[in-house]
Amino acid sequence: AMNTNMWENPLYRQNQKHLEELGYHFVEPVYGELACGWQGQGKMPDPQVVFNSAHALIGSKDFAGKTFLVTAGPTREEIDPVRFLSNYSSGKMGFAIARAARDRGARVILVSGPVHLADPKGVETIHVTSAQEMYQEVMEKASEADVVIKAAAVADFRPVERGEQKTKKGDTETMAIALQRNPDILAELGKQKGSRVLVGFAAETDDLAFHRYQQYFEAKESGFLDRVLVPLDVLNVQGRPLGRVDEDLGVRPVSPAGLRAMRELDTCVTSGTQTHASDGMACLLVTTEEKARELSPRPEIDIRFVAKAEVRTHPSLMPEAPAMAVGKLLEKTGSTMDDMAVVKNHNPFAVNDVIFSRVMDYDWHEMNKTGSSLVWGHPQGPTLTRILIEALEEAVSLGGGNVLVFGCAAGDVGIAAEFRVN
């Protein structure tokens, strides 16, 4: 930080250049009002900028030699010279991704719609306005990229005609604007993906998590959950009785103090039993057909295992792994999603449902109609067992049909299984 005249002095500029040649790094001053009252370049940068610059120097350079193509911000689709269609995207996420890739040694190309953000230093920034302009720039630069990250909020449609002059309101009370679809940049990139990594984002307004809770409580109030629960006398590790579980305890928060209290009862508490004591207590008994009919209170019900499938993928693709497993399963059995009477998945994150819905072109409202691990908690295998039990019971209540149960495990595995209930 210094007076503008000092900063611009040729002797200072020469000295800084010499230091840079020796390997020193500088965070240059910014334009603003200086302590002496002058206006100009010389103001100290924001401390966060200084920190980020230092962090970039000492951080890992594991992306060195790679080229990232990142998009950010909204697009504007002009109606006339003064009006346009757009959205609320600020561009901050795309710019943050571009800076992070740069700091890890990558060459970064940033294609940005209209935003109020300074161009990241050390990033090749290309400014565009419309979706068509962004399409042209991205497709031109895509061949240079090892990784493409589409964080821009690109308008899906644009006006069929752009008025040459400002449209007058006149005496009309309504106005209709004909729209036409913009090119789908992500879809076009997918067609020529090759070996590059392609990442896309989508804004959603559906409250999926709330909907899942609503489904769960509706199932509980209807008595459905009572039909899948077997009363159980619970013992601690010394064999002393702790109580009897004969109802679904519902969803309740557990504090650190609550977890400590459970430990005092000699129960096993893990990150998977943080909702209530019974959420992880599920099992499925597999035996011979004769023994099953002997033990079953409803021997007239016939449940058949059809097939299963498993895929292993990169951990970064964990949300997609279940969809991959289902695709493999359907290919094996010749079934389709439309053949399934019940679809239920182990979805610890709402994004799993969203991604499955998009990949498989299946309405997420049709899945997990009696609750899911998004609601109960995440005790891995036990929850998936509960999901299977509930899915089979749901098929029974519908009079039978095909059942699809799937989920993810261990961060990089997708599993799926099909059953038939008669």
Q: Could you characterize what this model shows?
A:
The chain is α/β, with parallel strands linked by helices and 422 residues long. Helix content is 33%, strand content 21%. A hairpin with a 5-residue loop joins β12 and β13.
Widest sheet: strand order? Answer: 7-6-3-8-11
What's the alpha carbon Rg, rounded to whole Å? 29 Å
* Main sheet attributes: strand count, strand direction, barrel closure: 5 strands, parallel
Low-confidence stretches: 265-280
Structural class: alpha/beta
Relevant terms:
422 residues; alpha/beta; 5-stranded parallel sheet; 17 strands; 33% helix; 21% strand; elongated
Quick structural gist:
This protein is α/β, with parallel strands linked by helices and 422 residues long. Helices cover 33% and strands 21% of the residues. The protein has helices at residues 4-8, 10-21, 47-58, 92-103, 131-141, 185-191, 208-222, 224-228, 256-264, 289-295, 321-333, 350-360, 373-376, 381-397; strands spanning 30-33, 39-43, 67-72, 77-78, 84-85, 107-112, 124-127, 147-150, 157-159, 179-181, 197-200, 232-235, 241-245, 303-312, 340-346, 401-409, 413-421.
Strands, helices and their partners?
Layout: H1 4-8, H2 10-21, E1 30-33, E2 39-43, H3 47-58, E3 67-72, E4 77-78, E5 84-85, H4 92-103, E6 107-112, E7 124-127, H5 131-141, E8 147-150, E9 157-159, E10 179-181, H6 185-191, E11 197-200, H7 208-222, H8 224-228, E12 232-235, E13 241-245, H9 256-264, H10 289-295, E14 303-312, H11 321-333, E15 340-346, H12 350-360, H13 373-376, H14 381-397, E16 401-409, E17 413-421
Parallel strand pairs: 3-6, 3-8, 6-7, 8-11, 15-16
Antiparallel strand pairs: 1-2, 4-5, 9-10, 12-13, 14-17, 16-17
